[in-house]
Amino acid sequence: MTADKPLRADARRKREALLAKAREVFDAGEFFDLRFDDFARLAGVGTGTLYRHFPTREALAEAVYHGEVAALCDRARQLGAALPAAEALATFLRGVVDHLDTHKGLARTLATLMADRTGALAEGSRALEQAVTDLVAAAVREGAVREDVGAGAVMMALHGIGAAHDRPDWRAEADGVITLVLDGLRRPH
Amino acid sequence: MTADKPLRADARRKREALLAKAREVFDAGEFFDLRFDDFARLAGVGTGTLYRHFPTREALAEAVYHGEVAALCDRARQLGAALPAAEALATFLRGVVDHLDTHKGLARTLATLMADRTGALAEGSRALEQAVTDLVAAAVREGAVREDVGAGAVMMALHGIGAAHDRPDWRAEADGVITLVLDGLRRPH
DNA sequence: CAGAATATGGAGGTCATCTCCATTTGTCAA
DNA sequence: TTGACAAATGGAGATGACCTCCATATTCTG
Predict the structure, then answer these.
(1) For a pLDDT cut of 90, what percent of chain A falls above it?
(2) Who's near B168: CB < 8 A, 6+ residues apart?
(3) Backbone φ and ψ of A186, nearest 5°
(4) CB-strand contact B45/D, under 7 Å
(5) Which 3 state secondary structure label does DSSP give A186?
(6) Which of B's residues 89-148 have CB atoms within 7 A of nucleic strand D?
């Protein structure tokens, strides 16, 4: 899929500069307020170069987001290996909320990208979803979680948490959603 | 709040024309693909007039959305009066999913507006939230629902359902979320 | 080190958004 | 009805973000 073409030294350098500055601007929550052209200058790069590397704003966001997602997925795998499935799922979900809380920019980005019908974050999103699906499947196998509601519903709830990132009482409500999901998932006996 | 100013006959007519055409375009799912200027001409109105009545695309969406929300809120009140609180809440939430399912355009609009930091749908959204809050509060009073998780979490879950409207298996997953929320809300004993 | 291949940057074109105001339409008092 | 004032209209054109294009610069390769 990703046919990694040999990239000229020059190009790699600029690309890194763009990604680095993007992460920075992201964490400051200014990513979507910035003129795309101005961003290029901010990163010390010409407009044309910016556009060659990342044809759209969303493409750049997706590139940054990719690293974040990889980290989250790793964590999911680690938890899955170290804890009983139900506990792993709970810890992971709470961890995601925590992560979004400390990286507000990320939450906002996810919300924007998800609302965007271009499917810009398809790849990263799928990876995250796979991680959640695995955790849920393990918990079901373990008998701790009902099987009539899929991981998709959990993803949707996460989407909601991201999408509503600007609510005044976000953190408490996000925790509430996770609580409802986890308690709701418990196998009813 | 809404200081209904006496509107000239002329103005009212144009305003109605805009809203009518907007609803139409909405249901066709073309609302966000249309040049705003072109929309004015479509409605048989000058650009200036469009902008005077609805300063932004979001303002127009919000105006259309307002009617929809009013209907939902009415339904919430009716259910609250006719059924035990817990049942009313369940029926209402399932009804919202049903409504979004038959009005895809609405779901997409909500998703877009919610992702938008301008708070364009603040008013309608607040009304809907109030309705949910009332239903939840009644259920808590009735003792059927836990009190450590607020209505805000339920709203967030609803946001998620709207935000994820383009997932392939949307309906089933949305129902799943509602199931999780309702089961999660049951007072743990 | 010369020539080919690759990448750069930023001036300028394009296009949706929104403003402004000369003109039209509606309202009301006489 | 009519005159006069206020309210509303429409669409030409300003604005400004986004993106393309290509003359120039940098890197690679034999």
Answers:
(1) 65
(2) none
(3) -55, 130
(4) yes
(5) strand
(6) none
> What are B7-47's pLDDT values in tens digits?
899 999 999 999 999 999 988 888 989 999 999 999 999 99
CB contacts, 8 Å: A31 with chain B: none
Q: B138 to chain A, minimum CA–CA distance in Å?
A: 18
Single-letter amino acid, residue A40: A
Asked if A112's CB is within 8 angstroms of B180's CB, the reply is: no
* Residue whose C-alpha is closest to residue A31's, from A53, A54, A61: A61
pLDDT digit string (tens) for B126-181?
A: 888 999 999 999 999 999 999 999 999 999 999 899 888 888 899 999 999 999 99
Cβ-based interface (< 8 Å): residues of A facing B: 32, 108, 111-112, 114-115, 117, 148-150, 152-164, 166-167, 169, 172-174, 176-177, 179-185, 188
Tokens of A108: 């906002």
